[in-house]
Amino acid sequence: MLSLSRSHDFTAKCKDYLELTKPKVVALLVLTAWVGMMLAVPGLPDIQTVIIATVGIGLLSAAAAAMNHVVDRRIDAQMARTYSRPIAKGRITSRQASIFATSLAVMGFILLYFAVNALTAWLTLASLFGYAVVYTQFLKRATPQNIVIGGLAGAMPPLLGWTAIAGEVHGHALLLVMIIFAWTPPHFWALAIHRRADYAKVNMPMLPVTHGIEFTKSIICLYTVLLFVVCLMPYLVGMSGAIYLIGSVILNLRFMQYAWRLKLADEKTDLAMKTFKFSIVHLMTLFLLLLVDHYLKVSPFYVS
Ligand code: HEM
Ligand SMILES: CC(C)=CCC/C(C)=C/CC/C(C)=C/COP(=O)(O)OP(=O)(O)O
Fold first, then answer.
1. What ipTM score was computed for the predicted complex, to two decimals?
2. Does a structural domain hold residue 72?
3. Residue 142 is part of which domain span?
């Protein structure tokens, strides 16, 4: 009986530690890093480097997420969406979470530095710093442009994947970064509209709190148009072909439709949450399309 309850406690602790790492967010970040790795070379990249880089980038991203939980523990405890998080609820102490996050970060950095390359290790560490310190500690609390500037850290993984394989920064990798950079504001502000009361309660200067819901909806519409244009770039520079172009146009028209409907909807609808959820499907599908397109190039449609 005693050992049964011990194993239950252990499983619950593991679940809490896993929650600290924001596993679904990290899964999507790693997918985008993966696409960066695959697109960095014409054929298949070295599989051993792919595996080590995936683990290294994943560990540093998970460490950044856990650090975000430590820094935000007080505001998390006051918001309906986050009040039951492990540190906010006291199931894990800040000290335990900090040791956990630091261990993940050190392991990830060592893996990348010694088994991949120094450039990737430093760039990934800079992304961790950008998210856990610059965004979470400062920007988040300072300006409604917090997620625009801070979004750069979350947009880095395709570049990290690319440098892991190619050992250098390439313009094509920067295009992939720009796509996620332009995607982040509609992704987050749709959720922030839905959770406006939460953010207002803890005095976080998120755009819907500082500039109102109507203004935020208009800016979301503008960003989906910008995203549409940025997403054309891989085709226009000859990096991707027809499969990507067609898929990307469909996905972005749909995102613009969500944004437009959200703009016209009244506040009682759940369109903000639907737009947020669609943003995740959008980015995942877009990156999978880049991958499929890379391996099934339909040459007649290429701009070269
Ligand atoms: C500064 C940039 C970003 C901000 C402020 C942001 C904000 C958020 C927030 C607040 C949530 C939580 C929703 C919830 O708890 O229900 C969320 C969820 C999510 N975000 Fe982001 N995000 C950013 C960048 C990214 C990036 C770069 C990715 C991946 C490439 C990403 C992928 C996801 C995913 C997959 C979820 C769903 C998680 C779940 O269902 O548990 N986000 N985002
Ligand atoms: C090494 C590397 C690539 C680092 C990037 C790591 C990372 C986890 C980026 C995702 C961005 C994200 C989930 C922001 C939300 O934070 P929030 O504090 O606004 O949201 P919350 O209230 O849900 O915690």
1. 0.96
2. yes
3. 16-168
